[in-house]
Amino acid sequence: MLSHPRCVSHQVVNFTPSETIGRINWTVYGKIKGLTKGAGINYGYDAGGNRITKKVGDNYTFYIRDAQGNVLGIYEKNNTNFSWAEQQLYGSSVWVQ
């Protein structure tokens, strides 16, 4: 469990016992900007504080969001490959005829 004086929510991060975190960098809003663990992990956020990018070594994850901040899709870039990883479906009602 990571802790920080400005962090109000609990986030679970899985590490094996042999792994250590060298350093955690925080944004001014109390979110993880990056941490050093092996190749290092860096996060990017939009103006609303929603995560929009994640970088682990040379691998990138992009979170595509709608105007309300809901994740619509997740894309990954590994070396020269750019692929669609996940798709979220949202709706308030179901229409059946």
Account of the protein in words:
This protein has 97 residues and is an all-beta fold. Helices cover 0% and strands 43% of the residues. The protein is built from no helices and 7 strands. A 7-stranded antiparallel sheet has the order 1-2-3-4-5-6-7, with no helix packed on it. The relative contact order is 0.12.
Please sum up the structure shown.
The protein is an all-beta fold and 97 residues long. Helix content is 0%, strand content 43%.
Please tag this protein with its features:
97 residues, mainly beta, seven-stranded antiparallel sheet, globular, disordered N terminus
Residue stretches low in confidence (pLDDT < 50, at least 5 long) are 1-11
Helix content: under 10%
Largest sheet: 7 strands, antiparallel
Mean pLDDT metric: 78
Q: Taking strands numbered 1, 2, ... along the chain, how are they ordered across the largest sheet?
A: 1-2-3-4-5-6-7
Distance between the termini: 49 Å
Percent strand: 35-45%
Secondary structure tally: strands = 7
- How would the global form be characterised? globular
- What structural class do the secondary elements suggest? mainly beta
Question: What secondary-structure arrangement, pairings included, does this model have?
Answer:
Blueprint: E1 23-26, E2 32-36, E3 41-45, E4 51-56, E5 59-65, E6 71-78, E7 81-87
Antiparallel strand pairs: 1-2, 2-3, 3-4, 4-5, 5-6, 6-7
